[in-house]
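The freezer alarm interrupted the setup, so I double-checked each line after restarting. Inputs confirmed:
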Amino acid sequence: MAKILAVDDSASMRQMVAFTLKAAGHIVTDAADGQQALNIAKTQSFDLVLTDVNMPIMDGLTLTKELRALPAYRFTPILVLTTEAGVDKKQAGRAAGATGWLVKPFNPDQLLATIKKVLG
Amino acid sequence: MSIDISQFHDVFFEESFEGLDAMESGLLNLDVGAADIDAINTIFRAAHSIKGGAGTFGFMAVSEFTHVMETMLDETRNGEREVTAELTNLFLESVDVLREMLTAVQQKTDTDDVRIENVRNKLEAMMAGESVAVKAEPVAVEAESVEELKSQGWKIQFTPHAHLLQTGNDPVRMLRELSSLGELSTEINDGKLPPFSDLEPEDSYLSWDLTLLGDIPEKDVVEIFEWVDEDCDLVIEPLAVKRTTQVEENVVELDKPEAPVTATVVEDVTPAELATASEQTDAVVEELGPAMVAAAIDKPAPKAKVASAPAASSIRVGTDKVDSLINLVGELVITQSMLSQIGDNFTPNMLPKLIDGLAQLERNSREMQEAIMRIRMLPISFAFNRFPRLVHDMTDKMGKKVELKLTGEQTELDKTVMEKIGDPLVHLVRNSLDHGLETPEVRLAAGKGETGLLQLKAFHQGGNIVIEIHDDGAGLNEDKILAKAIEKGLVDVNDELSPEKIHDLIFLPGFSTADQVTDVSGRGVGMDVVRKNITSLGGSVEVVSKRGQGSVFTIRLPLTLAIMDGQTIRVANENYIIPLISIIETLEVNSSDIKQVSGKGELYPLRDEYVPIIRMYDVFNLNPEATDLEEGLLVIVEGDGQKVGLFIDDLLGQQQVVIKSLETNYRKVLGVSGATILGDGTVALILDVPGLIALYREPSLALVVNNDRAA
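Predicted 3D structure, all chains:
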């Protein structure tokens, strides 16, 4: 069981991710954009952050950078959920400090497998 | 674990339709040539979300279609593609197609494949035509990896860079995953570990020599280090190599961990079929139209499910509204328990308490009523939203330039009223665009700017919502209207009509001023229907116009159809309700003031105008207490822009009444808009002022009513 922060501007994706993770026994907090997520992250701690890339107000890569700059999140796994499988997009994720990525579309099983990989 | 993701479909559809609306309004606001990057970003994001969601939830046709749009939007976003009018129009058309596709999947109906294909071809043609280097789609499978190294095992040298831990990666994860592939032996190398005093606790100093035994494909090993391949030195060598040549056409490329498998499909299709299906999607579409492939993939999904009718109309309510309702219910429960305590052992000296309690109950009910009504209220933007597109498309077609300005979009209105006002509004807007606003040449010749201004304004006024449609066009042409009205026999040649009266003629049945029926507004529906529809909602519509300067159509609507403020009146021994909104004043009259006019009955001089008097007991065939005007009261009411005085016996109280439809329970009766139940349980009819005026003007209609009563 882990505390997970799930960030996506799409309500259906957010619900799908949250539902899947909760069903697997995790504690999930969700946020609809990077800024909201950052505010939450500053007041609580999480074992893992899952974030979409393209979001209004603050995108996922900026969120990743901002989180990495916080002492509490220097080593926290941050996975970006991206629809782009291109190498440059992954580079951008890595440059921002992301731990890894999960390429959309993914199904609940793929999501859980990746989470398991990271959380052990 | 298997999770049924179809439970998220409703949310997906809802947000996708919202996304499409956002795309549409974003596209309409794009300035050709100098597009705002934020606006493009918003459009891009909407397309991106729809694509991602559609992929996740298994609507591959939608996902594929959006992908093409997204690619082009991305190019636009990066400044590689210019925003042209053709581009905007094609995107708008694509938005329509997507909306259709989504509606079709939602309602499990068929799509117009020809149209989809057509628009998609146009998109692809534009993409190919303008961008010189069409980038290879990332979706395309890399088919050349026919050689695969297999070995008895692997020797891996894994040396994390110092900062590896700071990417959130943990070497332990790699080791753990490797050990899940086969037999792993590890040798740790701590040679770089500095003296404790120099040790940076956040850095990584260790490296590993690993031996992994087993028949394990190299890509599985590489995949484990995929996230860190630039944050470490990695050497992967086979222990004992044997080269195998495989003719494998579909090695899934590393960057693309899984094909887009979806739960809806999984239910009905075997894994083998699935694999083929996703291959087809991936092996992109050069021979077949992608839409066709995607459609073919989408098809198996719904077969097991009963085609579902469109969901019962639902309403989105802000949680604050629900919270306030719950709060009020809480208060109501407290009041109830207080009253029941008083009732349990009531003594006369508790009367003040009882009165308090009842007052509280009244307040609770009123507040709750208001809170519940608020739940049905939606911002009028729901009705306004379609206009930017409508104006864009129409002006495009007519070669006019029009700026649309919306104000008061947050003004709230009852959902039912909103649904019914849509068509009349569209008609009025079309009318302004078609007949009101002029072409740029005509405008310039008239000394106006070449771009016309069309404004939609909504605001609350009293218990009404007012919607105004302003245009700065040519205004109504009185001469033409009058000539037409005379030609149609609607007015007499000798009638002297004020400009206002002439303007009002356009609302008469069968009236149309357009020289020819145009593609745009002449659809056989006249302004009379607009007025009829609005009147049936308990509202009114008027026009104020000035030649050469434009017109303003004003619609007034009740906020809700379910409840209204009423004035109870008495005529003979019957109670009636007059909508408070239509009452201007009530007065006692002097018989000497009354003017008798032959053919027009009695007139009362109200300031500078004469108001006809309608004796209510005559209308309803009652035996009056008083026939002398001095013994009763005259209620001045206004309907359809005309004032009349209703002669009644007495005014009773004012109260909010719940309207019960006569039509659903009985049938339409002229002069009566509905009925309500009063506090004492008796039924009172609600008077319809415009109907009463119509009765007064056309006494023959009264005969119909009277005959009906007799029958």
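Quick read of the result. The longest strand of chain A covers residues 3-7.
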